[in-house]
Amino acid sequence: MRKRNIFECIILSILTCGIYFLVWMVMLSNDLSRYDGEPEEGGLELVYSIVTCGIYYIYWNYKMGKRLYRLNGINNRASDNSVVYLILSIFGFGIISQSIMQSEINDL
């Protein structure tokens, strides 16, 4: 997995009016799938998020939290942030939840 600078991802998301934010979502999903040995479905999850007008994105945050919890549990560093990601995404702070996810992925 590639470690990404969280600050750069946030700045690029702002400068591109959210386009990089969507790309970052796909990269996070694909990185975690690659690490876990699952098929990469980040692009499909992006399509689901767009088609459902963001409802799937809220679920995606929760799902990613559970996946990170499971993978971090293997390394005995378990902390389940899935509800935090869910609440942040419901209130429009998805960039914060993705930043926390990226930090956890960088630590894997």
From TrEMBL:
<dbReference type="Pfam" id="PF14018">
    <property type="entry name" value="DUF4234"/>
</dbReference>
<protein>
    <recommendedName>
        <fullName>DUF4234 domain-containing protein</fullName>
    </recommendedName>
</protein>
<feature type="transmembrane region" description="Helical">
    <location>
        <begin position="7"/>
        <end position="26"/>
    </location>
</feature>
<feature type="transmembrane region" description="Helical">
    <location>
        <begin position="46"/>
        <end position="62"/>
    </location>
</feature>
<feature type="transmembrane region" description="Helical">
    <location>
        <begin position="83"/>
        <end position="101"/>
    </location>
</feature>
<keyword id="KW-1133">Transmembrane helix</keyword>
<feature type="domain" description="DUF4234">
    <location>
        <begin position="4"/>
        <end position="69"/>
    </location>
</feature>
<keyword id="KW-0472">Membrane</keyword>
<keyword id="KW-0812">Transmembrane</keyword>
<dbReference type="InterPro" id="IPR025328">
    <property type="entry name" value="DUF4234"/>
</dbReference>
